[in-house]
Amino acid sequence: INRSGNQIREDFLRFFEGKGHRRVHSSSLVPANDPTLLFTNAGMNQFKDVFLGAEKRDYSRATTSQKCVRAGGKHNDLENVGFTRRHHTFFEMLGNFSFGDYFKKDAIAYAWELLTSPDWFGIDTKKMYVTIFEGDAKVPRDAEAYQFWLDVGVPKERIFEMGAKDNFWAMGDTGPCGPCSEIYYDLGQAAGEDPSVDKLFGEDDARYVEIWNLVFMQFDRSSDGVLTPLPKPSIDTGMGLERIACVLQGVLSNFETDLFTPLIKRAEELTRHKVEADHEIDERSRASLRIIADHSRAATFLISDGVLPANEGRGYVLRKIMRRGIRHGRLLGQEKPFMHEMVYAVRDEMAAAYPELKETADRVAKVVLAEEQQFARTLELGLRQMTEETLRSGAAAFHLYETFGMPLDFMVDAARDAGVAFDMEGFEQARAEEQTRARASWKGGSQKTAAPVYRELPKTEFEGYSALRVDGARV
Ligand code: ATP
Ligand code: MG
Ligand code: MG
Ligand code: MG
Predict the structure, then answer these.
(1) Which atom of ligand 1 is nearest to the CA of 211?
(2) Measured from the CB, is residue 215 less than 6 Å from ligand 1?
């Protein structure tokens, strides 16, 4: 490794300090005063009001390395993790921001300089592609960005025009937004050895990986979809540290960078699972180790920032992440609590950049251990009953859910792993019937007896699964 993940983070921040940016510390994963947001999902979140003109700072340029979690809400990557090379639930977003100061021209020039200058990242320009917004009914094609990319020397064959899905960025359904330009890196033919990789932009395991998004913040979107121009056009960029590390360390996956290999090794020790040397034989176990490493980071940082496992809201997403990690430990044969030990591995790797972990690690580990113990009790009862037949029948699955508190997402996940189609329709039907029965028996105030712990799951929990795609790369 010629440049460690820690070094890359530092280089990025130093580069932008050199361009007059104030280095600002990451904000918490729990957004301050923003009920529209589940977790901090981008570097710009902490500056939302500055973009909107509602808040003033004593600087007009900032640079950050921001803790982000994308496991719910508008940006949800939970189902991808472990099965793509480039998605995490928790990741660090490196960003530079202009609050009504510079705009497209400088943002593009800075990004290109950092990536290609031999004094900085020195990436071969022949391996990069950029995209611009092609325009739609509300916002015109981004001809300016196109020209500025040509100006820094990107040949026109390497500039692609894309639609709103990829090239119009919004932090949520409302709030600051604008057209964007993205920079892609070609992982090359080596990545092509895996046939699932040789796909077009935007696919899960694309040979071309998106590394950096430059957002030209121009509008505030209201809940009825109307775009109001911001007081001043601004810049918001985001580059995943894990992805740029993948590029600079010359590996094919974020999970092969030094940001992850120590965690994967530790997960391997704790689950006492030795991955087979043969890629084909044990891809499933490798995915489990990646998931444990990833989810340990997310759980550690979320709890450290004050989230606690619960049956709704943020706490529920945390619980789901932890249980998914625990379940993959079980797939590797580890039925005893182990995730709480991962907390210390995460601290050891990350405390240099996020010193708060030194203070919080013991408390975090306790919370994780308690969740592992509680979940083990639930599973002990429910798992014995969970078979492929149960998963195929919504009514049987509902019985498990109702009687043992077996979480729905757990069964859906298990069905996917077993290659069985989960009967969501039957499950919903059984649930509706139960609700009708329950309502009838509530007359006179006689509540049913104690509800299983996981009964009150929020409806939003189902979102990800209905959108699930069948993808050869998943195991
Ligand atoms: P993708 O299309 O790969 O899902 P995105 O377009 O959703 O990424 P942006 O919202 O543009 O991502 O975020 C800016 C940058 O943050 C991305 O260019 C990428 O480098 C990084 N990033 C986004 N999501 C993740 C994730 N789940 N894990 C790791 N890095 C991510
Ligand atoms: Mg995405
Ligand atoms: Mg994208
Ligand atoms: Mg993007």
Answers:
(1) 20
(2) no
Instruction: List the domains of the chain with CATH numbers.
Output: 5-248 (3.30.930.10), 260-383 (no CATH), 388-466 (no CATH)
The CB of 240 under 6 Å from ligand 1? The reply is yes
Answer whether residue 158 shows pLDDT above 90. Answer: yes
Whether the full predicted model's pTM is greater than 0.90, yes or no, is no
Ligand nearest to the CA of 240: 1
Task: State residue 229 phi and psi, 5-degree precision.
Answer: -60, 140
Give the model confidence (pLDDT) of 419-445 as tens digits. 899 999 999 999 888 878 766 654 443
pLDDT of residue 464: 29
Provide the b/e sequence for 399-428 (b: ≥16 CB within 10 Å): bbbeebbbbbbbbbbbbbbeeeebbbebbe
Distance 221 CA to ligand 3 centre (A): 20
Beta strands in 332-419 (DSSP E): none
> Given a cut of 60, is residue 198 above it in pLDDT?
no
* Ligand 1 neighbour 91 (Cβ under 6 A): yes
Paired strand residues for 57: none
**Nearest CA owner, ligand 1 atom 31:** 240
Q: Give the per-residue pLDDT at 113.
A: 98
